[in-house]
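Residues pack. Consider this:
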Amino acid sequence: MIGIHRKNYLGVSNILLLMFFMGVLLLLIPLKGEAQDNRLIHTNSWEYEYIKRLQQRGHLLEMHPSKLPYAVKDLHQSLKKLEVSSLGEKERRWVNMLKKSVESRPENVDSMRVGGLFEPGARHSSSDRLNVDDPMGEGKPILPRARLNSYLEWKNWIGQAGITFDWFYDIDPDGLDTVRRLYIRSEDTYLGFNGDRVDLYVGRFNNHWSVFDRQGSFLTDNPQSFDQIQFTLGSSKISFSSILGEMDNMGADSTFTGRSYGFGALPSISVFTSVRLESSPEPQA
């Protein structure tokens, strides 16, 4: 694997030109006639803990252990290749849990698949900053949160809209002020194309180029979402991946404003770029 990471400033015209060429490339690719489970599995989802355990035992290695998130179809295809009869009782239980989580559902609206997810929860923190290496304040007794996603799939295409309510948004000393937004932010919202040779996702979602629950390319074991274009081109033997992401802008006093235009904004857009080249002697999924 080869990785290059840098932070720079790009003009909007260059970004639009890149998106235009990607769009032309997608138009030249034939579509499959069935929905392909192209939704991304959130990097904080429970599935990754069991995927990691199985990969550490030599299974599910068709999926690169340090390139998250996976699409639902990646996990589904990898599980189909697994010889369940050769597994121990504990491993079979993990596999059955994963199979239920990615079980294919029938198309339900004119050759399309429409669905959604509502996931409520809560957490406790003794600090206003969830980073345990740099705590701050006395925290809150409980931090309620809820996630609501809806999606529509057609052949190789996926469109998903998601919102997340989290009380932590209001006390986070390093994040954006929620002001009058009821502690709600748009998360896991994207438009994607997932093909045999080309993958392209545009929107706001999480990435983690490392093994689950370990620090990696984004310098944390708990990566946060950001606006981005994620592009992968290649085959099971060699592939090229790239991320072009817009960072939340900082003002002159080093506080995050989230504005890239208008009063108080920086004169240019702060863009994060990251690329990786992978080669494998054995075909993967």
About this structure: Confidence is low (pLDDT under 50) at residues 1-13. The first helix runs from residue 12 to 27. The beta strands are 2-9, 113-125, 140-154, 157-166, 184-186, 189-194, 198-205, 226-234, 238-246, 270-279.
